[in-house]
Amino acid sequence: MSEFLFWDPLLIQRYNKAGPRYTSYPTAVEFKPAVSDADERSAFAQRDPAKPLSLYLHIPFCRHVCYYCGCNKIVTKDTSRSAPYLEILKQEILMKRALLQGDAPVEQLHLGGGTPTFLTDEQLTELMEFLRSQFRFSTAADADFSIEIDPRELRPNTLKLLRQLGFNRISFGVQDLEHKVQEAVNRIQPESMIRAVMLEARELGFRSINMDLIYGLPFQSLETFDRTLDAIVDMSPDRLSVFNYAHLPERFKPQRRINAEDLPDAGEKLAILGHCINKLSEANYHYVGMDHFAKPDDELARAQASGKLHRNFQGYTTHGNCDLIGFGISSISQIGDWYLQNQTTMDGYEEALGLDQLPVMKQLHTSADDRLRRAVISGLLCHLGVDFAVLDQQFGIDSRAALAASLTELEPMVKDELVEISASGIRITERGRLLSRNVCMAFDTYLQQHEQNRFSRAI
What we know:
CATH architecture of the largest domain: Alpha-Beta Horseshoe
CATH topology of the largest domain: pyruvate-formate lyase- activating enzyme
Oligomer: single chain
Radius of gyration: 22 Å
Strand content: 15-25%
């Protein structure tokens, strides 16, 4: 694929409808209530013991509430709440470790939240030592151990400690560097703070640094966001995630503190995105897909170029060959053909573990059709295409016939030269790259069952 991104505002407006981000297929809204932990135990028992592991730990605590946020979090300044949570978390880790046969390596670890750096340096050290006592962590050069940080929640030695504990990648939210915007969303962090974190992280040798930006926030304009982009490009993070702010105050209570009248209108918001794409392309960032940019020498870009990029609940990843094991409230595991989500409230999580049960709340066992469509959606999002012959061999079917209704649904996008369908496969064109999410929606047999306001708009 080229580094050129076709930008046509009228075309994007025409196709810009709400839909999933496809960190899984079927998506989490399809998960069904779990009546017990029996199916999760069965998933562990049937797991290939040689398959490597990706671990996700959810640390839900935040000292401050960011008004745009829709994450599962507990806002508190009471740091004493983390100690009992960590004890319960260790109980879950022990239970699941006992169900894992063999000694498969951990190739990927991610601490997310919430704010993992809400934990004290001592708690972070103890947690990592505990994990290493239970699992064999890979020493391969491409092992990926990452953590989300909040620049406002770093003690003087926190970054140094994280590096010593084995973390080699960090990610943090910037969102916008304009003080007026930061004030409106209750996330004030001066540019000098961000630059200091970047400088220290570089000096400590973190091999990949990701920043999150959000467009569509209150008081943003093309002019103000351009200033933010200038500063970010100058800081030169390895990866950038540029998210569309979806204003859904009926679903996310903190967003009710954002005045809808202060948000940029649709035209301005689209102009911000278009300018952002052009500016990052000029700065030699490769568009990976779905709002994600990476330097050409970053692992994500290299994996995409070599056909080895994957997508799961971690987003784009270079370790899609792993079983994903989630720990903590709301975390999701993907074990073989099973998706399993933990309890989303502290009470439910504690109650299950108090009864010596796995804290599963929802689950889904994928069907053969689900797995076919998951492969198609993953191929489109990661590599802009899929081959029918590969699908035929992988699933033992006539994939073109099985996907006939979806291919028919794509006909308007074919006419608009966004997609090409040939005897050999499906390809998203250069013209259609920014609308890959829309292409995937044609293969989602569940989507018509849901109200559009369950999802954010594609752009």
